[in-house]
Amino acid sequence: MYFPLFPHLEAGRSEAGCDEAGRGSLAGPVYAAAVILPPDFHHPLLQDSKLMSEKQRLEVRVVILEKAVSWGIAWCSPEEIDRWNILRASITAMHRALDNLSRAPEFILVDGNRFYPYHPRGGEPLLSPVIPHLCIVKGDRRFTAIAAASVLAKTFRDEYMTGLDREFPQYGWKENKGYPTKKHKAAIGAFGLTVHHRKSFSCHL
What we know:
The chain is α/β, with parallel strands linked by helices. Helix content is 34%, strand content 15%. It has six helices and five strands, in the order ββαβααββααα. Strands 3-2-1-4-5 form a five-stranded mixed sheet. A hairpin with an 8-residue loop joins strand 1 and strand 2. Helix 1 packs across helix 4. The protein is globular, with a radius of gyration of 17 Å.
């Protein structure tokens, strides 16, 4: 199924799309991406990354990284997820991704329904202005920049989890990327938790 994407919310404005990947995983960091695209950006395969094949995501990622006005990747560790909670960690990762942009956007389009006010490059709240934002449920199926961010967050996190799989092959992270599959849960029961597991997630057992 393909969902037509809007190129922007307001024409002529620099808008960054933000999305995260790995929020429901039992292991590994939560990744986030922020992307500012040129106004004429289009790729026929780009959509919500969950609706794309791995091959399509990697193909589109090359184009995004080449054509984007600016892009940023960031993450929050399992320790940070356990210390705070997954919502705060996800939003913090998005803030960090925005910090990694080479230029601050004028507006932020956020996938989901929750976000904290963002001050550019982590500035002091009383000294730097808040960049306005809009939360959009299933925004990765509505706006090009959010869809692009979903592709970057997903592919970079998948590569990280595939790398961890070489150290911990018994958990099947190359295939499940840390999500709660039967094989992953069975491995936790047999081998216990690793330093990469989120200890605060009650669904381990």
